[in-house]
DNA sequence: CTGTTGGCATACATCGTTGCAGATCAGGCC
DNA sequence: GGCCTGATCTGCAACGATGTATGCCAACAG
């Protein structure tokens, strides 16, 4: 039913392969022939069947992207950047939502899904490095966001530790001494939660402020997690003059809860987050946070992955570039 | 290099076609044979090459989704729902960002991209019905969100008019009489902007409140558009006691600007939006808005599209189901 | 006139599957 | 025994493109 190269060839009066050559910009084609083919393509409305091309060439020109859920703003914004970066290089992106479940993450790493892509960008949340290495096939894989960090894997690093320290230092500079942390448990040292918590502790130590585990509250990295944790903190009677949400969703949830409880932000309690999602600028008060270099992360990750794809053999050396971060000071913690 | 059915067949000691039959759950296979094949698949780590299957079968089991940008929360949340609905039916979703540009929208409708999908979900922003019909190929197409509405096209309808009227009525019931509208120009009657504006006017008329064009401010449907428009409104000296953002981003932008300017919300000025994005619940004050039935829209659209795909010939009748809406009353306009 | 070169076009095999049309074989029935 | 039925398995030809090898012809050198 669809128009094929064969049809075009017949109309143009050339062989099928010549049509293929025209489409692929083969050098040695007489201009007149080329024009005849192009006219035929136009006339018939021919479009190359990418499926067939993929089968023959072994490349799909698609990248897989595995993340928890697009309804989470940080991932959505990152996905948007990634798609633009990939597009600019002639690749499309096939998104797979893992829902943060190990089962789905593993399925995405192994599953048939992989046969549709030339390589995979993966934001691991539930699996650890060992499991990822076990599950991953031989196709190129680049990790993002480093809940996981491992010398055997390509990844683009967020400077969790230093960025978190920078935010904490900013809060300390504002005179805050009792800074609550939302989204980690006392003792976490790995993953984004652990690294950010460590950054926080390092900043405290630098400033000579004591670390109080009572100020550290674990919860889901979502708005309602942040709100709940803040409520618990307030109810517990622990004193604090600032809240550091380990991501913006947590901070925004905290902000909401504080305002509901009649606390003045930032006068009584300052609030800071991590990620600089769009929403942070428009919260009331606007949210102080740290931008982890999202666009740069997307760009680097896509670039790294495509390099791996297009030169499979070369450079077996693992790469782990770091993105630059920047503290964005706004009203919630001036 | 990759393991193929042929390899599996050799190991299992059966024909290639039998392997295929096992994979496709062909009925008449001796259990022992089936087991032998499954064992071989396991042993070799065979995975079906979906590209080859697509070529042979003519189906890709992928749906295209064209929207402006995933960094816009409403689209991201809708995309997430659509992907889940599609997944549940054995389809994947290939997202294409149009950036709200006619050129990109047209490319997405026609381009080679379509050869990778069995059908398309399309949220048109820049093209009108005529252009869409011209550009679209013969593959199934379902429109969402109806900036465009046309009897020749399948689509899932948002009840723009009635939902906007309901929100307006809610504001009126709260005693507001000077309700500013952000995101439409006086006189708009088509598209989401026009339909929502008409709903607003209808509600005013019902309540016997005069319509004042000075209260209607056009702008980009984004947070900063809403903030700017609100600033202009305040500066212009026009009196108003409520703001109705034609989507939540506008309303949140307005909310932000009002608070920055020291206005009390909702005491002095009430704010309401449209979409019920996640963020609305966690704004401070939380945002009154109308939920257009996002999950239902996603579900219906995917269902409709897949029905079209799987029975191309049947039911040439255009379908345009309507999703149920619901006003969500929160603090910004109690 | 023959041999070589280079531009241009073609034929054929092939990528990994699935649809179609048998082939084979055991069991049941007359 | 011959024939039919239905379960089980197989071979061949596609799907629509591209890589490789090669053919053909004009131009040009010897």
**CA-atom Rg of chain A in angstroms:** 25 Å
**Number of helical segments of chain A?**
13
Q: Which segments of chain A are poorly predicted (pLDDT under 50) over 5 or more consecutive residues?
A: none
Tally of structural domains of chain A: 3
Order of helices and strands of chain A: HHHHEHEHEHEEHEHEHEHEHEHE
* Average of per-residue pLDDT values of chain A: 90
In a few lines, what is going on in this structure?
Two copies of one chain form a homodimer. Helices cover 45% and strands 12% of the residues of chain A. With 334 residues, chain A is α/β, with parallel strands linked by helices.
List keywords for this structure.
homodimer; 334 residues; alpha/beta; 434 Repressor (Amino-terminal Domain); Rossmann fold; 3 domains; 5-stranded parallel sheet; 4-stranded parallel sheet; 11 strands; elongated; DNA-binding
Q: How would you describe this structure to a colleague?
A:
The structure is a homodimer of 334-residue chains. Chain A is an alpha/beta fold. The first copy, chain A, has 3 domains: 5-48, lambda repressor-like DNA-binding domains (434 Repressor (Amino-terminal Domain), Orthogonal Bundle), CATH 1.10.260; 59-158 and 294-324, 3-Layer(aba) Sandwich (Rossmann fold), CATH 3.40.50.2300; 160-291, Response regulator (Rossmann fold, 3-Layer(aba) Sandwich). Helix content of chain A is 45%, strand content 12%. The first copy, chain A, has 13 helices and 11 strands. The first copy, chain A, has helices at 5-12, 16-23, 31-44, 50-57, 73-88, 102-110, 129-135, 160-173, 191-207, 223-236, 248-260, 278-282, 294-310, and strands spanning 62-67, 92-97, 119-122, 141-144, 155-156, 179-182, 216-217, 242-245, 270-272, 289-291, 326-328. In chain A, strand 8 (242-245), helix 11 (248-260) and strand 9 form a beta-alpha-beta unit. In chain A, helix 1 (5-12) crosses helix 2, helix 1 crosses helix 3 and helix 5 packs across helix 13 (294-310). The radius of gyration of chain A is 25 Å and the shape is elongated. At the A-B interface, helix 4, helix 5, strand 2, helix 10 and helix 11 of A face helix 4, helix 5, strand 2, helix 10 and helix 11 of B. Chain A binds a DNA duplex (30 and 30 nucleotides) through helix 2 and helix 4.
